[in-house]
Amino acid sequence: MHFRTPLLVRVLALFLIVVAWTPSATGQESDALEANGALRVFLDCDRGCDRDFIRQNIDFINWVRDRRDAQVHLLVTRQGTGGGTEFQLEFIGTEDFEGQDQTLLFASSSTDTDDERRRGFARTIRLGLARYIAQTPMAIYADLEFTPPRDENGDTVIAATPESDPWNFWVFSVGLNGNFRGEDRFSGEEFEAEVDASRTTEAWKIRLDSEMEYEQRDFEFDDGSVFKDISRSFETGGQAIKSLGDHWGAGLGASVKESTFFNLAPSYRLAGAVEYNIYPYSVSSQRQLTFTYFLGGNRFNYDEETIFNKTEETLIDQGLIASLDVERPWGSANINLEATHFLQHPEDYNIDLNGRVEYRVLRGLNLNVFGSVSSIKSQRFLPIGGASDEEVLLERRALATDFRFRVGLGIRYTFGSIYNNVVNSRLGGRRGGFHEIF
Questions:
Q1: Domain coordinates of the chain in residue numbers?
Q2: Tens digit of pLDDT for each residue in 297-327?
Q3: Which CATH number applies to 174-237?
């Protein structure tokens, strides 16, 4: 009698064998660390960092793969601003630099090119590393240059202040995408358009946005019949949020939405919200613990009669949101809990819990856990006729359900050389690599 080993068991067994087989390299790594006098830095940046460019343009230090090998842990977090993105660079000293921490900010405009953004980012890193390099034997090879801004006459001037901004902090974005595709028995077309306008200051955050999507797909079956699938959505809205000190914020917003997926003809919403952050908003890119309450009025218009025999209705809803976001040297975590219900129908409520944790267990070993679970008691938009088999298979209609969940686990183990300085981009343009079958 033969038994088949489940695939997951085989994968985990192979992973454990690799980890157990890996030779202990503690002595070798210690020798390598002592043999090079250059500053050892670990770059901890999930997204928005051009690592190849940084390593190529900051080559007077040793970039290491693991934070435990570093003398300086560079933790990079980011958050959106009214005109682009603000990067917060937290330099955390270890070993001889224990306690010598500092934080620098780099602001990138939405109109900056990728090259302008990465050059400004690398410049900020160099400035932050200067204090540490000055305390190493490599300091005798270092120097500092300063190039002051100048006007059209060549005279030194002070950089422009925000008050001189001709756009008064407003940032606009317009996008349009479209594609056509086809085969012998299939054809499709898709269009997307969006328009955004935002203005962000310390006192106010204002955002206006519109988005439209249209997709059509035609399928030909064996009997020659053709199924035409059309999906469309449109949404436009805006919000204004007022800062109320270091821990509070309040806002008012409105939106219009139309969607074949949710059986919505043009429907309208007006809502207000208030939020309290346990931590000051000035450290929001590192940690946030917020509690939000909102109250909104909704005018729903439906394409088809609903399971409650409605073609239109006006409902008021309220909700609470608790959210924790943490970005630290050990990893990152996000947990979000939201509960909402309609005042006229307390039995129609939704509760959503989702979270993600990435934790560095030990040298080279990272553990990722993510998941979400929802209790769904409010689907008043469902059409009385239900969804066809084709719409179910193509996921073109929201389906009746009491719950929804998703969970995942990931683990990654990396070993070998502790250094990560060399950049080689040869034959790196094709996804998957030229040696793979597909």
A1: 28-141, 174-237, 245-415
A2: 999 999 999 988 999 999 999 999 999 988 8
A3: 2.20.25
